[in-house]
Amino acid sequence: MTQMHANEFHFAPAISSQRSMLHQWFEQQHIKTWMHGVGLQNTLDGLENFFQGKSDTTYWVGYDQETPFAFLITSHEGNDAITLDVFICDPNYLGKGLAAPMIRRFLTTHFSNMKRVLIDPEATNTRAIHVYEKVGFKITGTFIASWHPVPHYQMELLI
Fold first, then answer.
1. Which among 84, 93, 115 is positioned nearest to 30, based on CA atoms?
2. Which helix (H) or strand (E) segment is 102 a member of?
3. Does domain 6-158 have CATH number 3.40.630.30?
4. Which of 35, 46, 122, 159 lies at 20 to 30 Å from 146 by C-alpha?
5. What are the pLDDT tens digits along the chain (159 aa)?
6. How far apart are CA 17 and CA 91, in angstroms?
7. d(CA 4, CA 52)
């Protein structure tokens, strides 16, 4: 693996030839902890719709040079906001302090025209919440998700 630098991260919409890689990523324990059951099925169904051109949601793969390592999901909320989901999927990229710079790079290269970014981690996902706060997200509320009935935080980043 090459030296990782956030300025070498780039992102592209997922393509159907990556289906098996994505499915393998979703099977890893560090992903299954947070994406399972109805939420996982919604993601799998949404991904298939995206591959068929039938989705307003965009499914992204993040790359370190040519190495795919992250999975991101965005949807527009009105004219000036997006929702964001982020997963670092390659275990070699976990715990290296790359998530916050990766998220910043993604937002500046693809969504600099947005005013707000919304994200909704489970309240117990302290690692993700810490990363989002480093990026500048603020907790604006809590809710119980229909897809997984445990407390989640609604977090917002003003760009």
1. 93
2. helix 99-110
3. yes
4. 159
5. 445 566 689 999 999 999 999 999 999 999 988 888 888 899 999 999 999 999 999 999 999 999 999 999 999 999 999 999 999 999 999 999 999 999 999 999 999 999 999 999 999 999 999 999 999 999 999 988 777 778 899 999 998
6. 21
7. 33
